[in-house]
Design a protein that fits this description.
8 helices, mainly alpha
Length: 220
């Protein structure tokens, strides 16, 4: 622990700036994990089959009630369509699309900051190294000839700490970004596929209801 503290303190001001970026990235990672792997983690196959079953049985109200048990993205979009179940296919589609435009961006929210954080942490590390080298050369310029080699070696060692810490922060950020980005895309593709399936059943029901309400033509 003392070695870590000493490593951090020798890096100077830029170590604190990199630490702030690391804490910022960690906060985003935790929040995105909760949203993607917690709030939106449902038994998708079971949910879709249950909703389709209610629609087939002519019970959209039961399907709507079933959707109310979850606040995940898929049930939210499906709920919007079910609320328009007795209307035209275009109205059902519009309701789902409008809801998707408000729900889907929440899944992609803030993930891009991880890539930015990794780049900034790396650049701060390099900037800290350059700054440390400048200070080292300035100190060597006014030192005795016998001390110059020792001072320069020590200064370079200290300056490189910021680059190391910047990379230590940036690499996990890039890994987390790739993982969360892939999970987000998988979730969105899954939502689109299953919303389309449920929409087809809603449209079929809508057309069936519409045809049963048509007045029969009089024959003479």
């Amino acid at each position: 622990m003392e070695a870590i503290i000493s490593f951090f303190q020798r890096g100077g001001f830029f170590m604190y700036a990199i630490l702030v970026m690391g804490i910022f990235a960690l906060t985003i990672i935790i929040e995105r994990m909760i949203v993607l792997l917690g709030k939106n983690r449902i038994d998708t196959a079971g949910f879709v089959n249950q909703v389709i079953g209610y629609i087939r049985d002519g019970k959209p109200d039961r399907a709507l009630e079933f959707c109310n048990y979850s606040r995940a993205a898929l049930p939210e979009i499906v709920r919007a369509g079910l609320e328009q179940a007795n209307r035209t296919p275009d109205e059902i589609q519009n309701a789902m699309e409008v809801k998707a435009m408000s729900v889907i961006p929440k899944l992609e929210k803030r993930t891009g900051y991880l890539s930015m954080t990794a780049n900034v942490a790396t650049l701060l590390g390099l900037l800290g190294t350059v700054w440390g080298l400048i200070q080292s050369f300035q100190a060597v310029a006014h030192a005795d000839a016998a001390q110059k080699a020792a001072l320069l070696s020590s200064g370079i060692s200290v300056a490189m700490n910021t680059t190391a810490f910047g990379l230590i922060t940036a690499i996990p950020c890039m890994i987390a970004y790739a993982f969360l980005h892939e999970k987000t895309n998988e979730l969105i593709d899954e939502i689109n596929e299953n919303v389309a399936r449920i929409y087809q059943y809603l449209v079929h029901r809508s057309k069936t209801v519409e045809s049963t309400h048509e007045s029969p033509k009089n024959t003479w």
